[in-house]
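In response to the reviewer comment on reproducibility (Comment 2.3), we provide here a single inverse folding case reported in full, input and output, so that an independent group could reproduce the run without further information from us. The structure tokens appear first.
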């Protein structure tokens, strides 16, 4: 099972990113653990310098922007 991390302090953009991840998973009928990371030290340790950010299985896919639904679906299919 994949692990999807959504990094952000809880702002509206971060919540929107998490919602898009969950929509993509549902659309693709995939199961994954979605982890919200809001601790600044954990973000820095993961290499995230701008939020919102998304990582799949530890690989950062986007940082500092809200990814599109199509982008997220593509990452999940990899």
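Designed residues, in position order:
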């Amino acid at each position: 099972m994949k692990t999807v991390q959504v990094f952000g302090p809880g702002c509206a953009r971060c919540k929107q990113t998490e919602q898009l991840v969950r929509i993509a998973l549902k659309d693709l009928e995939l199961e994954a653990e979605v982890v919200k990371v809001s601790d600044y030290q954990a973000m820095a340790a993961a290499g995230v310098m701008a939020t919102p950010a998304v990582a799949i299985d530890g690989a950062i896919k986007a940082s500092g922007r809200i990814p599109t639904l199509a982008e997220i679906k593509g990452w999940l299919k990899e």
